[in-house]
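To whoever is on call:

I kicked off a structure prediction for a single chain this morning and the downstream step that reads the tokens threw a length-mismatch warning. I double-checked the sequence; it's 139 residues and nothing unusual in it as far as I can see. Pasting both halves so you can look.
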Amino acid sequence: MPSDLVSGQDARDVAAYVAAVAGKRGKDVGALAAAGAPKVSNKPIAAKSGVLTMDADPTGALAFASTKATAVAGALEFVMGNESAVQHNIALEGGPEGPVVGQGGTSKFSTDVKAGEYTYLCTVPGHADGGMKGTLTVK
């Protein structure tokens, strides 16, 4: 694409549009809807020995390894490995969060959870809205 294709107010308008729609899913159907979509599992990932490992999608897509997780009530450590070139973290909605990390980094935090449902997500602006979130069921 040639440089300076648009300038002045037109360039600002294009930049504002891109910022407004980046990370938002469209309403396409069929093959177009699946293009570029991460291969995310809906099979719950279970915490083991008080540790829930929920890695970021390695392709850089706005997704975790699964949209569902399970754990038992009590102390729980959240661990998210990030092999993608996009910065991510893991957090509980409205609660604690791990640091934002780049490629090769690990975001983690510990908390106590009670029985119920929680939303885990990436707090980098636009990532949760783009699909980088899931449901943790605690029994």
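Update from on-call: the warning came from a stale cache, not from the record. Cleared it. Sanity check on the structure: The CA atoms of residues 27 and 100 lie 30 Å apart.
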